[in-house]
Amino acid sequence: MTTKTNPGRFFEDYRVGEVIRHAVPRTIAEGERALYHALYPARGALYSSDMFAADCGLEGSPLDDLIVFHTVFGKTVPDISLNAVANLGYAEGRWLKPVYAGDTLRAESEVIGLRPNSNGTSGVVWVRTTGYDQTDQPVLSYVRWVMVRKRDNAAPACETVVPDLAAVVDPGALVIPEGLSFEGYDFTLAGEPHRWGDYAVGEVIDHVDAVTVEEAEHMLATRLWQNTAKVHFDATFREDGRRLIYGGHVISLARALSFNGLANAQMIVALNGGAHANPCFAGDTVRAWSEVLDRAETSVPGVGALRLRLVAHKGAPGDNTLKGADGKYAPHVLLDLDYWALIPQ
Amino acid sequence: MTTKTNPGRFFEDYRVGEVIRHAVPRTIAEGERALYHALYPARGALYSSDMFAADCGLEGSPLDDLIVFHTVFGKTVPDISLNAVANLGYAEGRWLKPVYAGDTLRAESEVIGLRPNSNGTSGVVWVRTTGYDQTDQPVLSYVRWVMVRKRDNAAPACETVVPDLAAVVDPGALVIPEGLSFEGYDFTLAGEPHRWGDYAVGEVIDHVDAVTVEEAEHMLATRLWQNTAKVHFDATFREDGRRLIYGGHVISLARALSFNGLANAQMIVALNGGAHANPCFAGDTVRAWSEVLDRAETSVPGVGALRLRLVAHKGAPGDNTLKGADGKYAPHVLLDLDYWALIPQ
Amino acid sequence: MTTKTNPGRFFEDYRVGEVIRHAVPRTIAEGERALYHALYPARGALYSSDMFAADCGLEGSPLDDLIVFHTVFGKTVPDISLNAVANLGYAEGRWLKPVYAGDTLRAESEVIGLRPNSNGTSGVVWVRTTGYDQTDQPVLSYVRWVMVRKRDNAAPACETVVPDLAAVVDPGALVIPEGLSFEGYDFTLAGEPHRWGDYAVGEVIDHVDAVTVEEAEHMLATRLWQNTAKVHFDATFREDGRRLIYGGHVISLARALSFNGLANAQMIVALNGGAHANPCFAGDTVRAWSEVLDRAETSVPGVGALRLRLVAHKGAPGDNTLKGADGKYAPHVLLDLDYWALIPQ
């Protein structure tokens, strides 16, 4: 038997400064859009109606921001995280241009940091990944870091380079899509009356709804993003016989649930950070709550930005415990995401 | 924790004559169409092939009539049935214009009736809901009535207004899509030879096929219509830990199964009434039978109308019991639907 | 109760030379394409990206070759295999023209062979099925033979006609899509560096990945191809209460898994043969391996052909046993498929 298959990269295969062009560009169209709405209870009017989007100055309803994120992320998996032990964090994520049905995305990652672990069996790899459309314009850029196994524990330790990353994307750096305007925004059609000024820093919103997750759903989703990590698909792979749900599935579920209370926080424009606090499995009932972390003006009059913490959990309704006394995430918490969204002022 | 979330309307929040504009308009395209065909064994040639539809005088294959129904219905849920105890009935439903991929739908409901229950804890609300396309032309109109809880049992009882509803849509009021013609209708491609004249009033057709329903399927479908009632998604919501399947899922399943025997009953043009007789849960095996209730000519030569009772059940193959001696639906009956369909003469 | 439903054809209903026009033509578009990528871990760059396909001389990314196969196959089920006891084999399959989103497919089958079984209760039917697009150009042709029950065991035996079928499609008969060129082929974007010349006859490739199958997935897929055989949908139909997974679902799963090692074997152009060795059920974890059976030049410089055996199984990782000492398929083998694919030289 020959090995023409991809074993994935190991820690010692990365070099700081190296740029990896990821495989399998992908044209995303109406079908992916419909599947997104079947897989997640997404109801943001800007992503549901061409007419609502046109009334907001866009050429039509863009593909959901997280479709772009998952597609770009999925491209990176065979090169970055096939041998990853853990997905450690995100930073400096910015959506740079709306993506529409028919656009073709590809991705590249630059290795921007490496730190061997003291146990000699693994290390941390930082990459800055950029997604490009068919005109080679960047549509999304973010930093992700993962712990990756070494192929050979005897391989010499590389020099440690830890990138200097912003704790939060500066509101001045948020990219407002060209033409976006909330002047003619119809709050009734959008589903809620709450504007930028109605949200107070520190305010916590319980999103009320819940979804019990099925195996078929998370596998359909993860395949759609061409994410091939076998832990999501092969029930014989983990010792407990359970398939781990792709962390991005939980992000999309929680974001969609947050419509109820944040219906007007229409566009995700930055990802400040995020932690997949505990694994999610089929059968879990996922709930979500949000905390308003900050508010900012943007370069466009009438368009405000909210910095939001989005927490997904599998605990009881209304349980908004985040961490225990030890500073660790409570065992029912699945996701702690920090992002900027655009909302009418 | 703040409550920016939508608690839904309660019985005392409705006023006769009030018009509710529902949130989240939706552009429906090729993706929703494909998902419909993946979720239901739909095979009507007019809804499967652009060429077949063109040969029938239409601009292309319209979206399935029930996609339009589910989408419009889904829009109403947050305003009408979030606090509903029961979905009691439908009447005077008419499809007014075919909907094509790329159209954008929104919905409005007028409250046309209110009746407080004598127990003082709930009441019946009648609404006439209309779906509109992007040109503000109506595409579907129907009456639905639901039993809704009161927020405050001490709230004063309103005046009772019970609308006068037609038992059956008059065949003269059926809207035949502009251009529709069955002159060049290809019965071989359609799948069956049976014409309007081949069906006798009183005739019962067992549709033979059956589908065992999975959780992932009904949740994908219900999300696709942006129907957010938590009883369909949250396995912790009901005491028995079971997710109730959206009644419309059963309608679409039964209608698709009815292809086998009614392949030429192509277009649904009216909904005379309907009852969700018993709840449906994942694991149930759904079967269907139809009864020809009436036949009518239409304004277009060659286009006939059949009034059909469509029954979905989870009983044994061939069991066409509808009601018991007590006049109540047999426990295996899920759906009793009464509609008009167009068929070549 | 009347029987307007289709009981399917029985063995004595077929005549050699007869041509059957199958029902329900189907327009396939972006939605079916997206669902294919959600249902199978398909990553062939030519079928993922319009730009990659354009760089290979095509007008855009065609629909996956197996979408065409499943759609055409699905059309034949009500006429050919509704009363089939077994799907016995395939031969002389050729893809004749790429199919694009928006094309409408229909199918015809010519009965080319009949052989009554000696037990008098069934017989073998050979059909050559051709799929046509909206311009009546053939897009796919293949021979399939099935064992079909007799309606009446006393029906007289017909004359035996066994067609003379090629064991392998001659490489000279492979149809290379008009304009196809691998001159500007980007191996990095395609995902692997291996060319035609890198594969040796006899080489075996274990595709490493695995997928545990869910009921909802195979039913969504099978419905999408409008395949109505009840054994796939009705859990009460078989005595063991299990739904048999459509054999084509296993073909697509295995083909998609074979990306890992055969990423550049982009286009399926011929089906030499195939056996559904054992049934597949939900819960099975499907793996795949391939064997290079032959290599051939084609009429287009730079475009080579590989003849591949694709085996799907539900055994342990790396188990590439095909048959036992008795010459029968090992019990864990699900599929043994023999096809030609195009690959850059």
UniProtKB/TrEMBL annotation, chains A, B, C:
CDD domains: FkbR2
SUPFAM superfamilies linked to this entry: Thioesterase/thiol ester dehydrase-isomerase
GO MF terms, alphabetically ordered: lyase activity
Organism domain of life: Bacteria
InterPro entries for this protein: HotDog_dom_sf, MC_hydratase, MCH/BMMD, Thiol_ester_hydratase_Rv0216
PANTHER family hit by this protein: BETA-METHYLMALYL-COA DEHYDRATASE, MONOAMINE OXIDASE-RELATED
Protein name in the entry: L-erythro-3-methylmalyl-CoA dehydratase
Record lineage: Bacteria, Pseudomonadati, Pseudomonadota, Alphaproteobacteria, Rhodobacterales
